[in-house]
């Protein structure tokens, strides 16, 4: 069922098809629905949130139930065991330590003639984090979104998440949120939650940046509100591309492919290897592990449609194909992974060597697991502290500096037909001459 | 005509109205047109470009005329005088010098148990720059977009710009493009140009990131193709907010306001001052300068609709109002501008002191003049080298490290119901035990 391809042209065509796997969706129709939800929440506030929660989540809430209460937050700690709490706290520490590296800092530079130039970094006032419900209610997602905001120094971080089934919101998610420093949690999901964060309602204050993954409605809503607020990215289904040599263990490679496929029927798992024996062993092992897989149906679907093994002529060819695909996750299960890294131009995260399965990075190595998908690694990067920071350019000219540069500015302004631009310099220079 | 307001509540309401000045546009209808243009160019390539150029620009082109020829590029140098060329070259040097500061660099960090973590920065393969035609054909825009891409190390930078009237493309724009390192220039504008850059045509190769300002059709097209390619931002009409004290020269302040207003009938120019005498003098001077202004009609319109003077009780209050507005350009024409900077949370660029008119930064101080508008400074920053860079996270775990962290990863994976994630670690740890 996991196809093995040996021709380069076929491989390129298949990789293109897999990369474009979300392009075919009928988004225009869904966009009309999302647009209506956004407009209604903008106009009606909380009332619209309750209406859509009843309609889409089959949950009747009162206004005062929108915000998760302190007692519910406390209770969540009773529902997670010590091992899990320890693991969440370990992940918190490691993610925070990594994100504290190389955070952009404000600077000024003093030049000739008392010119001062610089950049002043400040965090956004408020961040809003979307955490999906249902199958994808992951505490790790909470940490990966909230900790960069906390490191950036964002004073208020709000989280929204669907109300959940009768049991309510996953307690591990509520614990992760508190460990990561989130104080406000609201029981609302879908496009209506994105609208609440973008425009504000009586209960939920407007934020400046919205991050976090979601289904197609959430993603469309984020795209539509982009410009009113900042967003992290438009997340698509997850994907891994593995480059493996004959030193790789086929059982490990197969498990790593399934670890991607088990996320979503649209997830993609690709192996590029020069070793045709490894290719066959991995394909067989994937079949074997699928038989008793707890998420067999969806995992099988992903493997059938978006699973692929390509036998390549060399590791260099594998790097070229990988660059064309620009994978979200790239595993280099090869003897000398650092040699190949220099040939990789586009990848969200690179996992080096035989003992670094993607799960290491998904949970607690430190780097963010929110990564560009569907070829977006060609131009985008992981979510990070920068997502919650912005800077102001700083410029100070002295009269002397303005005098020296004035003529060039006036020439450029006049070329552009911007008379007052030229005057704003000219009048100051004339003053200067008067003073002298 | 330039209104003076003294009540805080009125000021807040007016600033909100000015900040939201582009929200009312009937974008949904225009979006349908833009969507059609994008789809047609995606399907028909060059043929669609020629069709739309004939329809929207009233210009009949042959396919081979889409790309600006080498002889045309050479000829442009004959059409600009030496002063202008010198000014362009000076601006190039200064912009490049500023953008070379603090460019993110790749790094790795070696931890305990042979854990290696890091980030590897790489430029995008191709950048596409949109340069408007007509009233807004500015050589400075070319420099501000192309130089950051060049500093980022982007191998190919393509520029698109409308074909222009009978005289063709502005020669100063063609010279600036060459000085900034652009080699490919295409004679196409509007949404069709954005489509060509996003999807590629027979003549114009697909790019990875599109930057540059444009009219509402260009901006909508950029929003729609975001996700297929990266974009810089959704630029709105320009704005300046000036905080001035009694030491400011009213003639200079008035000229700076007009320098913003002369861009666009939607441009905004706001003065906040504790000095009511200065407020009146500035308002009178604006009227005086408008009489003979070369762009009187549009400038007058901007001042009438989006010009505003607020008499504030203190500079601290001015800073608060400025933070609510989050201006693209902020001028601090006050005695101690560095004292007030610390109270500013949101501003695209800050111009400090009496002798730093915004024009200094528009042309050649060095920092980018492409800045967040309409309140986007709450979450966004100037265009920069980062716009054209992205990074891959790097993660390497040793068998020992995986052994130590393994249980925590397995606990988290099992909590999330991701069995193969847990297995990808478990099977490797078991192997390790076997080896030992």
From TrEMBL, chains A, B:
It comes from Desertifilum tharense IPPAS B-1220. InterPro entries: Ald_DH/histidinol_DH, Histidinol_DH_CS, Histidinol_DH_monofunct, Hstdl_DH. The keyword Metal-binding applies. The gene is hisD. GO terms for molecular function: histidinol dehydrogenase activity; NAD binding; zinc ion binding. It catalyses: L-histidinol + 2 NAD(+) + H2O = L-histidine + 2 NADH + 3 H(+). GO terms for biological process: L-histidine biosynthetic process. Catalyzes the sequential NAD-dependent oxidations of L-histidinol to L-histidinaldehyde and then to L-histidine. GO terms for cellular component: cytosol. This is Histidinol dehydrogenase. Keywords: Amino-acid biosynthesis, Histidine biosynthesis, Metal-binding, NAD, Oxidoreductase, Zinc. Zn(2+) binds at residues 260, 263, 362, 421. It comes from the Bacteria.
């Amino acid at each position: 069922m996991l196809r093995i391809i040996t021709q380069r042209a076929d491989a390129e065509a298949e990789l293109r098809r897999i990369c474009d796997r979300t392009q075919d969706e009928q988004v225009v129709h869904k966009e009309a629905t999302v647009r209506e939800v956004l407009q209604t929440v903008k106009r009606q506030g909380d009332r619209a949130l309750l209406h859509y929660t009843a309609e889409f989540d089959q949950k009747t809430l009162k206004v005062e139930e929108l915000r998760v209460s302190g007692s519910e937050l406390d209770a969540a700690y009773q529902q997670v065991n010590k091992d899990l709490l320890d693991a969440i706290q370990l992940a918190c520490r490691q993610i925070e330590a990594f994100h504290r590296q190389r955070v952009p800092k404000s600077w000024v530079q003093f030049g000739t003639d008392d010119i001062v130039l610089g950049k002043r970094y400040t965090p956004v006032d408020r961040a809003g984090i979307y955490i999906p419900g249902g199958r994808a209610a992951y505490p790790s997602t909470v940490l990966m979104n909230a900790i960069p905001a906390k490191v950036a120094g964002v004073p208020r971080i709000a989280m929204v998440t669907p109300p959940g089934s009768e049991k309510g919101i996953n307690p591990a998610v509520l614990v992760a949120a508190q460990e990561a420093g989130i104080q406000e949690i609201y029981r609302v999901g879908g496009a209506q939650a994105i609208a609440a964060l973008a425009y504000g309602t009586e209960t939920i204050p407007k934020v400046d940046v919205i991050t976090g993954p979601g289904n197609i409605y959430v993603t469309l809503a984020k795209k539509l509100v982009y410009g009113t607020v900042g967003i992290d990215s438009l997340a698509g289904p997850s994907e891994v591309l593995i480059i493996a040599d004959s030193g790789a263990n086929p059982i490990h490679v197969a498990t790593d492919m399934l670890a991607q496929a088990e996320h979503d029927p649209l997830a993609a798992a690709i192996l590029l290897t020069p070793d045709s024996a490894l290719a066959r062993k991995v394909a067989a092992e994937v079949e074997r592990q699928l038989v008793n897989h707890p998420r067999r149906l969806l995992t099988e679907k992903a493997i059938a449609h978006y699973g692929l093994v390509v036998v390549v002529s060399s590791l260099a060819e594998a790097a070229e194909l990988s660059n064309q695909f620009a994978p979200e996750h790239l595993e280099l299960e090869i003897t000398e992974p650092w040699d190949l890294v220099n040939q990789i131009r586009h990848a969200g995260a690179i996992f080096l060597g035989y003992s670094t399965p993607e799960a290491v990075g998904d949970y607690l190595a430190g780097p963010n697991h929110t990564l560009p998908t569907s070829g977006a690694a060609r131009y985008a990067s992981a979510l990070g502290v920068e997502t919650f920071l912005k800077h102001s350019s700083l410029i100070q000219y002295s009269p002397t500096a303005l005098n020296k540069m004035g003529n060039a500015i006036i020439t450029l302004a006049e070329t552009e037909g911007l008379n007052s631009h030229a005057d704003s310099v000219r009048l100051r220079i004339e003053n200067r001459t008067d003073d002298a």
